[in-house]
Protein 1
Amino acid sequence: MTLEQILFLLFAAITLGAALMVVLRRNVFHAALFMILSFFGVAGLYVLLEAPFLAAVQLIIYIGGIAILIVFAIMLTRDLMNPNIPGAIDQWKWAAPVALLLCAMLIWMALGWGRATPAAPVPDNSLHLLGRTLVDAEGLALPFEVASVLLLVALIGAVTVARER
Amino acid sequence: MSSAYSVLTPGQVVWALSPELLLLVTGLLILGLDAVHPHKEEKRWLPHLALGGLAVALLGAITLWGCNTRVLAVLSCDPFALMVKIVALVAIGLVVLLSEVYIERHSARHQGEFYALLLFSAIPICLLGGATNLVLIFLAFDFLSISSYVLTGYLRDDPRSAEAGVKYFLYGAAISAVMLFGLSWIYGLTGSVELGEIATVLPKLEGNTQNLLLPALAFVLAGFAFKIAAFPFHQWAPDAYEGAPTPVTAFISVGPKIGGFAVIVRVLLTAFSPHTVVELAGNWRVALMAISILTMTFGNLVALWQTNIKRLLAYSSIAHAGYVLIGVVAASTQGIAAVLLYLAAYAFTNLGAFASVIAFSNQTGSDEIAAYAGMHQRAPGLALVLIICLLSLIGIPLTGGFVGKLWLFSAALEEGLLALAVIGVVNTVISVSYYWKIMRAMYFDPPPTEEQVVVSPALGVAMGVALVGIFALGIFPNALLPLLDAAARVFF
């Protein structure tokens, strides 16, 4: 087993284990902390895929921005960490078999396929290409602009939802 | 694929994107004007501005008719896309008319954001009509979802509206993650996010790689089914419909469905066309057939027990998504033309029905069917409009609903889908009984008071437009045939 494979298994275990804990922990605050750990595992996977820029974005935006925002939201919401609040858990009996079935099906299909896609060569200037694609008229210029309008609408929506009474 | 099209000049790109750009500019203008005019009286003309913006955007879409090209490599400007835009813009215009009195009454201080969000939500529907790139499709999908969530929970102080918004949001957020997972599989297996390129790569893939596309496609279809509220991804619909402000209910019963069906048709018939990948296409057709049958049967059966008219119309709209899916399963020129015609007829009909529901609840404050007792004495015109809309929803001759159903069922028969057509007809018969419940209350039950129901001018105009649409599509559908045929031929 190569070092790369060991690292992959490690990061994959961190990502999935932490993700599982996010779902299983009753305490929302702990769940948020496990989510940060899961994000960290994903960043590790990006490094292994030779996408350092994505790894950095994952660390800065997801852990540095989003996760911290979630932690703030939890701490600023009254009563959210009260253990006496009943969780909506009576549905899990139905959800669990469906989720397990789906998981089994996916694993079965992946095993049936039986081989990995040959890794595409990583271009030297992947960051350069990424930047180019986002503003290239033949690339993703329009989706890039739509994303900015989407963020504007999300912002207006957030203000509308959280406005003063 | 993009090389097959000539490169557009910047001016042509702006022209091709004019409907979306005009909607964006009008929305921003409304927000700005709303901020500098704090007084209630000055906000009266915000809806008129919104209507003006929609009219100009509609004009832009109409002037583009006949264009058949690719805009910025990710958006197709073709008759199908333009047809979707035209239907969507007319529908949103009707929703603005429905909103005027309701929003002024329930949220007088925050009218600007409402109309701005309504216009913004038309942008992704227009984009979904022509999007040929999975990235753009996903963005437009989420764009439409986010504006719909906010609109659903718009009356924040009304717990039902807030609850509906949260339910819709949680359900939608989960399903859009599932859909994205499926899209990532498609990208991983084909190496492309461009529908045209996926179509050329797919037939060359080995058999077992094609099999891996099945779960991927299932995840993506789950996302699409959520958008059109098809079984079993419909659970959000009844609660969201009942809790949302009624004009928003009208919007989410029509807007997301138009966008959802546009993208279902384009993705399935471009990338997974029955002409290129026979086996895979056979699989999704069987899956959609099952969804179609379950959706219409479930929607119609549960609608039988409803006592709240908004909830009843929610289940009825689930059933209608099932009918429209018949045209997609047929996957023929006729089928797609029928899908477009049905969506247009359904938009006019449902918005007409909601116009009368809003006019009625503005007066009585109730959405219970029992409250409609003796409505024909209190508001004969209103009762008549609602009857005509219900008859069109059933599919009685001379209405758009009839022609839509006729086209859908005959498209199914043409493709040898006899069982699907028969189940559609049986469902139509079932649906008569719950629509009849409303008619009976209005015409045969004694009214609790003699008080007349007053209809605001905006709602009157909306009903007028809806009726003209219903009868125009019902009596002269053949005038539209060449346009619908051109739109459907984009895929064949």
Protein 2
Amino acid sequence: MKERVLLLVGSPHASGASAMLGAQLLDRLPTDRWDTHTLRIYPTLSSDDRWRDLIDAVHGADLIVLSAPLYVDALPAAVTRAFERLAAGPAVSGARPGQRFMVLMNCGFLEARQCEVALSICNRFAREAGLQWAGGLSVGAAGRMTPYVQEALDLAAAALDAGDEVPSAAVALASKPPMPAWLYVVVASAFMWFEARKHGAHRRLGARPYVPAMGGGRE
Amino acid sequence: MRALVMDGCETAPAGTTGPHVLLRDAMEGRGWQVETLHLCEMDIAPCAGCFGCWTRTPGECVVADAARDVARAYVGSELVALLTPVRFGGYGYHLKKAVDRLIPNISPLFTVLHGEVHHARRYLRYPAVLGVGILPGPDTEGEAIFSRLVERNAINMRAPRHAAVTIQTSSEAEESLNALRAALVRVEGGER
């Protein structure tokens, strides 16, 4: 009988870095041993039906993979809400022994280590929800799919398939920065500038609309 | 001295007791003029991750809900207290939702800070940050994660000073008040 893996995408974007990284991991699990299923967390916040679907999927999964972006040093609020509801609801009492939980974080900074707090929160959630922690990978540079990240996903998938935790070698590979910090600052800032130019806002990037709230322009 | 309390508790305050009252008393006792926003009562959508606040209407979220008021009040304060139940070491939903929507207050451009890549500052001045976590009982790991999260937020939100404290719902009010006062002294940079 095949094992079931559930990918929970914790990004508001259906086809962003979180969905892509999660799909890449699932693609590496042998299809003769794994059935895969993907759900987005955001839509479940506003629909009871979708939340029930998520609960059912979580309950039926042998391995749950969360793939999420870093929002202000932690998980996005929507994922926080899902964690709160899962830990408080029947999914906890319904958790089966051996159900595993693995996390893939990505962040818009160069350094994957900036996801460290988010991973600690995930680890803690897993224990409170009665899930077995299967490890976490963090990817910097906006989830850029470098050869290092691909190799890290290979190692992680092999470990998960074998029932093991994500190995430290995969963690190290995934967190390798693809470029020096100064170059990332230039490239990522240029990306933002060009995005703003598409909307005619590039000359206002440094706008300070709330200066009046600061007491008569104390800046 | 203007201070903002971002109250991320699950329910609207009732009566004259509770963590937000203790916090307000502690802050006012140290001379702060306190504005409290009860986030669970406010219309704040989760961040859509569209970057519109950086690349379409720089400095202001494209979604016209109460998160704009929170972001404005944030930069208009000299001290911001983040009050929240501690969830898995992190912030609860209501506070996290509001914090995620504070990113218009920083620049979309990047810089290197403390040896790491971070967003550049938008404003010249930002408030100090005090994280106040509410726990049902002793929880060393939860406190450590919470402190680390407040520290990371302080870096990214360019807070000149920060401190984190946890209070337990099982504690006596006086004990919690003393812990809050001590944390305020730390975030103020010492006794005045």
